[in-house]
User: Fold DUF58 domain-containing protein from Hymenobacter armeniacus.
Amino acid sequence: MLSPELLHGLRNLSLAARQAAEGFLNGAHASRRHGAGMEFSQYRPYQPGDDLRRLDWRLAARSDRYYLRESEVDTSLTVHLLLDASASMNHRDDNGLTKLDYARLLLAALAYLATQQGDAVGLTVLSPAGLRHLPPRADARQLPRLYHALETATAAGHFPDAATLAPLTARRQRALTVCVSDLYEETGEIQALLTRLRAVSGDVLLLHAAAHNELSFSYKGPITFRDLESNQTIQLDADQQRAAYLQQLQHWLRETAQTARRQGFDYHLLNTSQPLDGAMREFLRRRNAT
Assistant:
């Protein structure tokens, strides 16, 4: 798997998505199953109890054997991608990528995967200025629309308030919702949104983006931290605070994962310095179970 920085270095989201996703497509195509559908797939020998209407009588006349026409039943679904575009997603890792950069690459790869499965894919960029929403579609022009929306997304401000988010849960539409967020919130607003989406749409896959320098606290010596959303600053000695920080971080991560799973979400922690394969594997696992 290519690293996130190499994919980002391509400077072409369409190419990066295809490069990241193609390794998962071989043997992972699960959007169709054999059955009595409309699109022909293959023949198989007749077995007692099979529906005689599916016998291919012309083949039987030529071969003196009985075969059934197998077909493919389309089991595609709707995939709704959510991008947290609040300012904390501008946090930059040691590899030079921001969480937003990583989220763009990941969601583009998931959109490519879902499209290859025949799914209708939509995207909503969540920002305080309002929602940028592309309704789910399965046509050939949807991927370029999604790529453009991801490429032009910028992160700013706080996570949107409930009034801004209300249109997302106004209508019931069965879908697999995939949310990429760093889960920095003030009063549980991200959890509240996903809980409502699970109630009206069904399955939710929560991909928690965390930078490597956050997870390892790789900073050294005296340093000033600035909150990207409130602009508040704090000065500390990183070497003195590392042990306490890591202990609190692990407690927060455990609590976050437990809370998400209690709400019925599939939760997966992402290290933004690592390749995208873990998140894509989770997506395919969840998609195939839907």
Notes: The mean pLDDT is 87. The two ends are 26 Å apart (CA to CA). The chain has two domains: 4-27+77-289, 32-74.
